[in-house]
């Protein structure tokens, strides 16, 4: 039992997983939980127990047949593993920012006490990075490549400059929205300093905001965008691709949405399907634990300081992102 | 001191579950009446707390060790903890109290009713009698787990030592009741000896019985008839043992049912007798599972996927699991392999193992090979990669020999999908 408790003791914290496309996030969470349970239940079975019973029997060394109670240790099967079943039947695994079935990428999970850190991560309102692959020339009803076709169009007139111009427009309009939703009075000096450094972001609910967008690769009909955003859903990102197509006076669908960074978890931290076992997860939790603590501390202190009207010094150590 | 029938319940109620029958009498009577009582009991009512019939229930898992150790030659009174008789976990039927009273009445009048001990707990008691009072905590009359009873039931203890997983069996309430009522010497031993004769090893008995605990309620003659039937169909002894091990419920099927199923497979698959036999030996759960999925899958292969009958026969003899596979998974795999990877029917027939792998594995490996430019599945051309090498080898061998890349490259590629 000792080894099992030890294994469970190291299973508290956050770790990131690479969700492959086509898998629902709930199935992934259930698979990870099953694998962790397998690992935790696989310890050595406990030693056979004994219990003390007072048995009636003739006393040794006495001539008469007088009966007396003697305390004897008899084996007991009450806590035998075949009678009780496995030691653990469920583990609490929580999911951070979700990904829908067709998208892929970094998905943050929390085990045990790490689930409260998930709430902290949510309240830190950190940005996320996506790579979005688009296809010019058709439009579908759900903005995906395999949806019902709505429209087809030509795209010969589309050039890289036009695309870049559109993306810059989008970024500019979202910049304005960022300032508006962050509820900061830009007339103050602190707010101006933060805006200059690009640290403004809303710390409460807001619609999807894009903090940065650029085109990585353009080979018509395909193009690859890198999007940095917050408070988004993957469907909204696909809709963004559709709208970019409309702005370019053609149509576009989204063929891939892939999250490359969620807050401070990057692709390097993400565990692949072959690594979803207890040891890799424990190592991942331990590897990221110090970074998680530092980053959450920073973002919490930043949010505190930024709200205070008279704090001028606190801003220096706050580094939002 | 003839207690009338009406008085007895009241008396017992006031005494709260202790019975005052002498040990020797109890021993003898229970020996005789035990079996019938337990059967009578199974038709019995819910044991409420003021029920005076609890002591009768003792017999069924007669804790003979407990009894013998605590029996004395001349004890006049034994206070039997009533809950020990609790082996009626969750029995729900109507109480038939009236049925019991006459029997009890005759019981009492037979015995020396003047043996009845005093009712007051303050009455002085001799040392010997005091020692013989059993004051173990009472067993619960009904419970959801067999843990409470395992230390008091020899049958359960012997089953655990055999390797039977009681935690799985107690999930079925009827199963737990059945096991508690069984007696190791009489019922269970015969079946165990029969199974050992069949060829099931000691260490395999545990897993077998965990799955098919209902075999204890089968008649030994029926089991022997079924084995004889299988032997008459020219299944060798070793084959029968293997089949029973892999499909634990096989022996619970009657001879007609087995006959029907064998006939169905012969007609449906149209294979030779020997090949059908080999197929059944390889996958005996074809006989115990439902036949509907098999019929559906045969239609899917013929109509939807477009395989010819001899092709289906070939695939099934290679991979029998295809008969019971999930229809949706089959169509998804076939769709990807045939339409996306452009592999024609005759190649798929040669490697039916693709239908047995997970779709994500096929997709990931195919996309990696396409990325490297090595996705060549045509045997007539160079650098041909066969389908079974694609799906059956583990990751390291696939990366090194087939994709000629490192495992890290494969992982990096997977993170770009």
Automatic annotation (TrEMBL), chain A:
InterPro entries noted in UniProt: PsdUridine_synth_cat_dom_sf (IPR020103), PsdUridine_synth_N (IPR002501), Trub2 (IPR039048)
One cellular component (GO) term of this entry: mitochondrial matrix
Pfam families reported in the protein's UniProt record: TruB_N
Domain Pseudouridine synthase II N-terminal: 90-234
CDD domains referenced in this protein's UniProt entry, alphabetically: PseudoU_synth_hTruB2_like (cd02868)
GO molecular function: RNA binding; tRNA pseudouridine(55) synthase activity
SUPFAM superfamilies to which the protein is assigned, alphabetical: Pseudouridine synthase
Superkingdom of origin: Eukaryota
GO biological process, alphabetically ordered: mRNA pseudouridine synthesis; positive regulation of mitochondrial translation; RNA processing
PANTHER family listed in its UniProt record: PSEUDOURIDINE SYNTHASE-RELATED (PTHR13195), PSEUDOURIDYLATE SYNTHASE TRUB2, MITOCHONDRIAL (PTHR13195:SF0)
Entry's family note: Belongs to the pseudouridine synthase TruB family.
Record's protein name: TruB pseudouridine synthase family member 2
Lineage, uppermost ranks: Eukaryota, Metazoa, Chordata, Craniata, Vertebrata
UniProtKB/TrEMBL annotation, chain B:
Short name of one Pfam family: mTERF
UniProt protein name: Transcription termination factor 3, mitochondrial
GO cellular component, one term: cytosol
Main location: mitochondrion
Organism of provenance: Panthera tigris altaica (Siberian tiger)
Matches recorded under InterPro entries: MTERF, MTERF_sf
Annotated compartments: Mitochondrion
Family named by the database record: Belongs to the mTERF family.
Encoding gene per record: MTERF3
Record-level Gene Ontology MF annotations: transcription cis-regulatory region binding
Function in brief: Binds promoter DNA and regulates initiation of transcription. Required for normal mitochondrial transcription and translation, and for normal assembly of mitochondrial respiratory complexes. Required for normal mitochondrial function. Maintains 16S rRNA levels and functions in mitochondrial ribosome assembly by regulating the biogenesis of the 39S ribosomal subunit.
Coiled-coil ranges per UniProt: none
Compositional bias of kind Polar residues: 83-99
GO biological process: mitochondrial ribosome assembly; mitochondrial transcription; negative regulation of DNA-templated transcription
Keyword Transport in record: no
Keyword Transcription applies: yes
Region feature (Disordered): 78-100
Family annotation (Gene3D superfamilies): Transcription termination factor 3, mitochondrial (1.25.70.10)
